[in-house]
Amino acid sequence: MSSPDKPTLTTRQGHPVHNNQQQRTVGSRGPATLENYHFLEKISHFDRERIPERVVHARGFVAHGEFEAYGTIGDEPASTYTRAKLFQTKGKKTPVTIRFSTVIGGRDSSEAARDPRGFAVKFRTEDGNWDMVGNNLQVFFIRDAIKFPDVIHSLKPDPVTFRQEPNRIFDFMSNTPESMHMLTWLFSPYGIPKNYRTMRGSGVNTYRFVNDRGEGVLVKFHWLSQQGEEGLTEAQAAEIQATDLGHASRDLYEAIERGEYPQWELNVQIMSDDEHPELDFDPLDDTKIWPREQFPYLPVGMMTLNRNISDHHNENEQIAFGTGVLVDGIDFSDDKMLVGRTFSYSDTQRYRVGPNYLQLPINRPREDVLVSTNQGGGQMSYGVDNRGANPHVNYEPSSIAGLREADESYREYRPFVSGHIVKAPIERQNNYAQAGETFRSFTDFERDDLITNLVNNLSQCDKHIQEKMVHHFTQCDEEYGRRVAEGLGLAVS
Ligand code: HEM
Questions:
Q1: Domains of the chain, residue spans
Q2: 60-358 — its CATH code?
Q3: Residue 1 binned pLDDT confidence (cut-offs 50, 70, 90)
Q4: Is residue 408 pLDDT above 70, yes or no?
Q5: For 245-269, what is each residue's pLDDT tens digit?
Q6: Ligand 1: which of 344, 346, 353, 363 to mutate, judged by most atoms within 8 Å of the beta carbon?
Q7: Measuring CA to CA, how many Å separate 102 from each of 58, 81, 178, 368, 444?
Q8: Mean pLDDT of 276-301
């Protein structure tokens, strides 16, 4: 007898399943017959249970929560800088979903690896979704999207031995001087956060805020952990991963189950929208930090995670973030990484999840946002988007019925650009200064840990690669290069 707490098992066609223990066979010993629909449905669905894992950030963990706006950006009303509705009113709450991740390992890999951590937040606003797809280290290895497949190939396992090889990583990095700043963070204790709750997040790439008057400013986003920031040494990480590959997911899940809701404060840094020739770096270069003394952190609101997911596949494997997913009041900058990322995310998701990935409950905008498009069809089409009263009109313009374009009074931000079309590096590269400053800003313990980790990894590399890396570190800071050279037993020139 079926009851609400133990319902009858059915097939996906809704037919009751009377025997879930035995296949249909000729006599009890077989052979098996193949017309048993329940068996075929069960086994062939199982054969398709996995979708391709993400090409990067395969291992991650998702939680839900809310973002509460302060209504201000620093001391100013939020409207001074942006018309994005989620920031305007003090106390305004916007539902969010967050996915934390590691980058290089596969879906079941260790969460104690030395690796940047992904920090991707989906804001479910009344104007549709806004995704902020960031990491925990403020900067990145490269500044041009065309190099992304190469940096990732060097960090991923060797295509023959399938082992992550320091020789391949540092071969690439030693030919990529702009990576020195990121490497300085990555090999310090910040390179293995203790868990997801005790790390910060950053948008890394530069965006624009646009206000009601259509004026734009450059903006960088930062999430400050209210749990504090803590990292692990290699020895501590090794001890954890000896018995638990998923300690960070477990930590977050259990904290939320206990009602200990983790929080991060969103801060922004703001700069006028021009090239800033007075700076020794390019504001759009994502290998650089905007110095906090010159561009102070301005608090914007608080995020609280207060609800765990109910299904890993639907809410974690299938969630799709992208840097192109912006709302009115938040716009692109000319950052060369950002444009490449914006193509890459939705491109991979159409392959990884499918062309109708935006119809899935985890990805579609919240209920009160009416999705009205003339897109239709494709694999796994789940429904038809709103097309108004007349279902025959799936094109625009039409004099009969259908959809119309949004309000014309929409004030688009219109930056002016002119110049030759070239393939050229940026002028203000300054690859070493901030890496040196970061090195000098570390405590003695952090500096010692950084040197130990670099020496341990570089000692597995060819001598010419070691020498090249020491050359780069010396440009960053004389002590930095000297200590790595001493650790490797290299003569300091
Ligand atoms: C041009 C450079 C980059 C490219 C082409 C790129 C591309 C990708 C791709 C293809 C994915 C997999 C997405 C999916 O399967 O759903 C991904 C995931 C991710 N990337 Fe990037 N990425 C780049 C740079 C960055 C940077 C600089 C950051 C940090 C600021 C970052 C943060 C993330 C995060 C957090 C995820 C995981 C999203 C999730 O949890 O689903 N990426 N990236």
A1: 60-358, 433-488
A2: 2.40.180.10
A3: low
A4: no
A5: 999 999 999 999 999 999 999 999 9
A6: 344
A7: 7, 33, 22, 33, 27
A8: 97
